[in-house]
Design a protein that fits this description.
Length: 228
């Protein structure tokens, strides 16, 4: 028996629908997330695109060496006890040197918040230093939260200036890291102050935080001794 060679309208519609579905299926699969290996970002690429893991805050030093004299190129002799312990009546002041990695620090301004904690755990003093890696010498900024008058903006200096005196400061920095390191500092007067008048001797703690736009981007601390 011969099959009919004519096509009915119903059969034509079915054939057209099957052809349309055959064309649309690859497009639909391509739009499904994760179905195409060509569209998926390799894990290695995702890891490479993530921000650098290097922390902007390298560490902190406490020393009786004046960083201003180091920066000015004055002769500074490295003596025993340059980083403590500090004899209260023989130490005019100590400086807290905050060491940062300029590669991950960025170019925007930030605050270096330094807290001095007494041996008994109570707070002695807090200092907030506005820092701008691009600040001009002697730059000032309006900071009503810190002072009713404009305050000085500090530009970090190369930590390598300390190299001839203290090497890498005990941070185990390789030569490249040392070149990329910068620092700021604050001074804590010692002799003839509340410290010696009230015998505030023992293990002090200095805590340093880097804060940008209200967000903490780094924190570290160091214990140092002031006594007799």
């Amino acid at each position: 028996m011969k099959m009919p060679t004519t096509t009915t309208p119903r059969m034509a519609r079915c054939s057209a629908l099957i052809a349309l579905l055959a064309l649309a299926a690859p497009l639909a699969l391509a739009e499904l997330p994760g179905r195409s290996m060509l569209r998926r970002t390799p894990r290695a690429s995702l890891m490479a695109a993530s921000p650098a893991d290097a922390a902007p805050l390298t560490g902190v030093l406490v020393t009786d060496i004046d960083p201003a004299k180091v920066a000015a190129g004055e002769g500074v002799s490295l003596h025993p006890g340059w980083n403590g312990p500090f004899h209260a009546h023989q130490t005019l002041a100590v400086w807290v040197v905050t060491v940062m990695d300029r590669r991950s620090l960025g170019s925007d301004g930030l605050d270096v918040v330094t807290r001095f904690i007494l041996p008994d755990g109570s707070l002695y003093q807090t200092m907030t230093t506005p820092v701008d890696p691009n600040a001009a010498p002697g730059g000032m900024v309006e900071r009503p939260d810190l002072s009713p008058v404009p305050v000085k903006v500090v530009r970090p200096m190369p930590f390598g200036l300390f190299g001839p005196h203290i090497g890498d400061g005990g941070f185990s920095l390789d030569p490249q890291e040392l070149r990329m390191s910068t620092f700021t500092s604050v001074m804590l007067p010692v002799s003839g102050t509340w410290i010696t008048r009230h015998n505030l001797y023992g293990d002090w703690t200095v805590e340093v935080r880097l804060v940008r736009d209200g967000k903490e981007i780094g924190r570290t601390r160091r214990v140092f001794y002031i006594g007799l």
